[in-house]
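fold description:
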Amino acid sequence: MAETPTVVARSDGRTPDALRPIRFENGIAPNAQGSTLIHWGDTRVICGVTIEDGVPRWMKEQQVAGGWLTAEYSMLPYSTKDRKARDITKGRLDGRSSEIQRLIGRAMRAAIDLVKLGSRTIWIDCDVLQADGGTRTAAISGAWVAVHLALQKLVAEGELAANPIAEQVAAVSVGIVHGHSMLDLCYVEDAAADVDMNLIMTGTGRFIELQGAGEEATFTSDQLAAMLALGRSGVDRLIALQRQAIGLA
């Protein structure tokens, strides 16, 4: 049976099953077709979307129908307490950044009917302004809002007959910290976690991806069940906040 969250002290005073305060500030990047700044506790991520006509060369060569979606992710130098050097200064993309932008792309492609998109490419740019844990989950949750706004703009302009988004997508972190299952880890909790996991889910409760590992620790099936239950409850609340952000709630 899944573990029931108990009252334990957290670094910011939350209960184990509580999200940090979350809000979306839309239209933050006027030149993007859709954009939002997601405020998630002390984490801040700008998500901007550009839609271009045409698809990658490989799609043309393989005669793949529909459009494409890709993502880029970066942490700005001042997003952390100690300055983070830009990838360009190292001459290559940071391995973590590469992993996260691929994750964002996979998550968003699961949400969109790419055939209905037509011969177009959606570019998602996620830039971390301030990092306090959960930047990838914030980027995914904010990216969905920005993509919806961009595609709805094409519908309003008559470029698309209907919005090709088939699912809502949101993501949240969970973990075991000092033996307790917790939702939405901030940086100090993430750094102290015995186990950390990211859940990417649809608005209908289906999983897109799970990323979880013990940090020099193991976890039981009951602990896994507790983390999944916390994650699902967090995603449900995120889905509601996303709907508010796009005017559907």
